Amino acid sequence: MTNTRPFGDTGMDITPLGFGTWVISGPNWEYSWGATDDADSIAAIRHAVESGINWLDTAPAYGLGHAETLVGRALSGIPEADRPYLFTKTGLIWEDGDDRQGPPRRVMRPESVRAELEGSLRRLNVEQIDLYQVHWPDTGAVFVYGGEGESIATPTPLEEYWQVMADLKKEGKVRAIGLSNHSVAELDRAEAVAHVDAIQPPFSAINRSNADEIAWAHAHSTGVIAYSPMQSGLLTGAFTADRVLAADDWRSANPDFTTNLPANLALVDALRPIAARHGASVAEVALAWVNAWPGLTGAIVGARTPAQIDGWIGALALELTAADLEEIATAILATGAGYGPARP
Fold first, then answer.
1. What angle separates helix 282-291 from helix 322-335, to the nearest 10 degrees?
2. What is d(CA 7, CA 297) in angstroms, rounded to the nearest whole number?
3. Active-site residue among 31, 62, 85, 161?
4. Is 62 among the catalytic positions?
5. Which of 62-76, 84-98, 181-195, 319-333 is predicted least confidently?
6. Mean model confidence pLDDT for the chain
7. Is the CA virtual torsion 315, 320, 325, 328 positive or negative?
8. Which residues, including other chains, have CB under 8 Å from residue 131's CB and lie 6 or more apart?
9. Sign for the pseudo-dihedral over CA of 109, 95, 231, 23
10. What is the rounded distance in angstroms from the CA atom of residue 332 to the CA atom of residue 337?
11. Using CA atoms, how far apart are residues 95 and 205, in angstroms rounded to an integer?
12. Of 234-243, 247-256, 273-282, which one has max mean pLDDT?
């Protein structure tokens, strides 16, 4: 049986890897990864579950409900006892009249949160969400990846929207509640209202900027699931300097894939000998590095096809040695890739 880890104090034990659905959300929305094939996506979800992964992470913002719908379809034929835990989110929406290919709004009004939850339950075809997460803090602004745009509304205070999340848990609509992309100061404010069951920060060998949030979670018996552990594909070992991304792929304008690409690829090259020693892929080494970080419960990994899963599923059982971790830290510092501490 695949190894699992206690997910904070939620009572759930989860595998060190979970399947992420952003990448299968389809085209024609602001943060699309480009065209996808729904049949391949459903096959990938099922292959992940059959390979031992016991949780899926999704969000209504991913393809404006499309990713959640695919998850519901993929799990429809799986017996209840064999189904994975379902984690989804709230707070990034397109309201009536919005440009569906423009940026979403950060909205955490109580009535909006409840409406989003009902939509997610319907698309996923379940009666309870295992983990319901606030996608981003409500700042009253249009969402822009890596920042935010113009202010458009009065933000809902964190204490107010976190109380709504706690109420949903008490009502049994959700089993656990979490915060994604929130700072330590914001986590402290939320914890004063109700316990933060889980957090979801970005974290990888390139983006190491959320080490303080992970340490906070460890101190508060809070589970941690990291997103973008392979830095949106950079740490797979397959990305090259001459690869041209499609215009509708959000990564095409991201600094990690443009100005910072040489340093990032140099770090990837430094991981290759470590992968060879373990008989593993570069992607598996990158994922094992994330899961070696103290306090981190698991990492979210996406795939468009079953074959892509086979390229990283071995990380479930890969344990890096102290010498491996020191070699990676040395490479991080030598290449200047990314930001944040190079070692725990």
1. 100
2. 6
3. 62
4. yes
5. 84-98
6. 92
7. negative
8. 10, 12, 85, 86, 87, 88, 174, 175, 176, 177, 178, 197, 198
9. positive
10. 6
11. 36
12. 273-282
State pTM to two decimals: 0.92
Determine contact, residues 84/54, Cβ cutoff 8 Å: yes
Contacts of 173 (CB under 8 A, 6+ apart): 117, 121, 128, 129, 132
CA dist 41 and 43 (Å) reads 5
| pLDDT tens column, 1-35 | 469 999 999 999 999 999 999 999 999 888 888 89
Distance (Å, rounded) from C-alpha 277 to C-alpha 170?
A: 49
Closest CA to 26 of 84, 83, 68, 87: 68
Report pLDDT digits (tens) over 279-303: 999 999 999 999 999 999 999 999 9
Category of 91 on φ-ψ map: left (φ > 0), alpha (ψ -120 to 50) or beta: left
What are the tokens at 129? 């969400």
